[in-house]
Amino acid sequence: VPSPIPCSLTQPVTPELLVSPSSQDGDLGSECPEDRGNWTGRLDFLLSCIGYCVGLGNVWRFPYRAYTNGGGAFLVPYFIMLAICGIPIFFMELSLGQFSSLGPLAVWKISPLFKGVGMGTILIVSLVAIYYNMIIAYVLFYLFASLTSDLPWQHCGNWWNTDLCLDHHVIKVGNTTFPVNITNTVSPSEEYWSRYVLHIQGSSGIGDPGRIRWNLCLCLLLSWTIVYLCILKGVKSSGKVVYFTATFPYLILVMLLIRGVTLEGAWKGIRFYLTPQFDHLLSSKVWIEAALQIFYSLGVGFGGLLTFASYNTFHQNIYRDTFIVTLGNAITSILAGFAIFSVLGYMSQELGVPVNQVAKAG
Prior knowledge:
The chain is an all-alpha fold.
């Protein structure tokens, strides 16, 4: 029986830097690079990185961090951390993946002492995928709920609303003459989220999650099904899906921005967003938040970038791609800030409270 053709006859010899005694043990370090395949198009890798980095970290987490850490002044530590931490680590992770053509587990034959790092990244990214898919399930839930002429979170009077529910828009349009105390009221959209979608009134705490929300379960099943279909054929299918998933969010973001800036009171939010409060820069918390935002938004250290780069050809220009993705990610965050803060300005005017008291964590 003829023996299998060794990897060295079909692929360039593995760089000596990656050769270790553990390579002969038949473990995860012995996979052949040619079995992994390559991206099928020139833009597959670039769009995959953009789709991987651009997400909730840009659309909500960045505006909220700017919201609580000095407004426009937050951009100073943000770009400093991007330059000294984000870009170098991003480039290093892409370089390691492209140079080795190995995944986050096998790549650590470069230094077997750190093989636990690869296992840790797999564990962490698994947990992240689980809770991110739950967020996607919420998105699908709202997508289906919005396919009606009368949005269910638009008005009070539904079975899930309480006596605290107050439609501020109706009061404003009605031009009521009697004084209305709106300090302790809740908007119908907030009660729809907390009492209908999450059904928090059916739970007494974290030890009592309440009954199963079957509509959310079906949305979660659909989100996992979509993920499965996207990665069904590895990079051959996921590389094509990103042509939509990495570009369509920008279209939606521009639409939200146009809609946001045309709302009444939007300028109040944008002014708060752009007005720098430089006294915040004296706090170490702001600099820590900026660093956390860079790491969170770029997704470095999760193993995803390393995996994407491992499907590149050996001479892919990742130096160029690094600057395209990291700077594009930062610009997207700033653009999302305008969209979010324009809506916060509108909410501030509708609720009659300052902009810095509109949103809350949790």
